[in-house]
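User: Arsenate reductase. Structure?
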Amino acid sequence: MAEGFAKRLLPADWQIHSAGIRADGLNPIAVRVMAEIGFDISDQTSTVLDPKALQSSDLIVTLCGDARDHCPVTPARVQKQHWPLLDPAQATGSEAEVLDAFRTVRDAIKARVTELAESEVS
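Assistant: Predicted structure:
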């Protein structure tokens, strides 16, 4: 979801890459809740962190504690931000409750990416 927002909301000259500590596949519920607000992420893929890409990045954003705690070491010049969000893929309950968890995280990610975009413009 973060990649989908970043590619549309951040400056066009930014290179956006999304990866995790595991490649768990594209979550169909994430695709569904993003489509609800007009973002098609169905062509995105789930990839594993590339240590070389981390070394050449300007900014690394981790979205949950697991990613923050297991992110490989990067040079001091690489800016890091941690957005402490719950992993909606871990949500349990009824279909409606799981959808609500995904929507809550989706909206939080959108707000964070919007803030990042605004801070880069000013």
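The mean pLDDT is 88. The chain is about 45% helix and 5% strand.
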